[in-house]
Design brief:
Blueprint lengths: L1 E5 L9 E5 L8 E11 L3 H4 L8 E3 L4 E5 L7 E2 L5 E6 L4 E6 L10 E2 L17
Parallel strand pairs: 6-9
Antiparallel strand pairs: 1-2, 3-5, 3-8, 4-5, 7-8
Organism: Evansella cellulosilytica (strain ATCC 21833 / DSM 2522 / FERM P-1141 / JCM 9156 / N-4)
GO molecular function: histone H3K37 methyltransferase activity
Protein name: Nuclear protein SET
């Protein structure tokens, strides 16, 4: 259903993104990405590594490093996918927020809410 390819929207050394290999209907589960949770007090150590770009809030007292394809979804303020945290399974579950056509890059809003337009850290520079 999805694959990793070079992304024209991604900056940096690798320029990768997640793309649909066929049409995906709105509401479809796209990917269940496992996470590595850790306590917030350890985050200051992670901030000094490349892993800091793959961390999401994970409840009140924890952060989590996203694994699998989850770490490669790029950001858009008008995404075509969304995610939900599944604490029971320790996954981030990605769903199609709109119908997605084969070949389209799949985007999430890093703010966590598809309607949240608050500028992200990399847009504030």
């Amino acid at each position: 259903m999805i694959e990793i390819k070079k992304s024209p929207t991604s900056e940096g050394e690798f320029n990768r993104g997640v793309f649909a290999t066929h049409d995906i209907a709105k509401g479809t589960l796209i990917h269940e990405a496992p996470v590595l949770p850790y306590p917030n007090e350890q985050h200051q150590l992670i901030e000094h590594t490349v892993l800091a770009d793959y961390v999401f809030e994970y409840g009140e007292n924890h952060c989590a490093i996203i694994l699998g394809y989850g770490m490669l979804f790029n950001h858009a303020y008008e995404p075509n996918a969304t995610y939900e945290i599944n604490f029971d399974k320790h996954t981030f579950d990605y769903y199609a927020y709109t119908d997605i056509k084969a070949g389209d890059e799949i985007f999430i809003n890093y703010n966590g809410d598809v309607d949240d337009k608050e500028l992200l850290w990399f847009h504030r520079k």
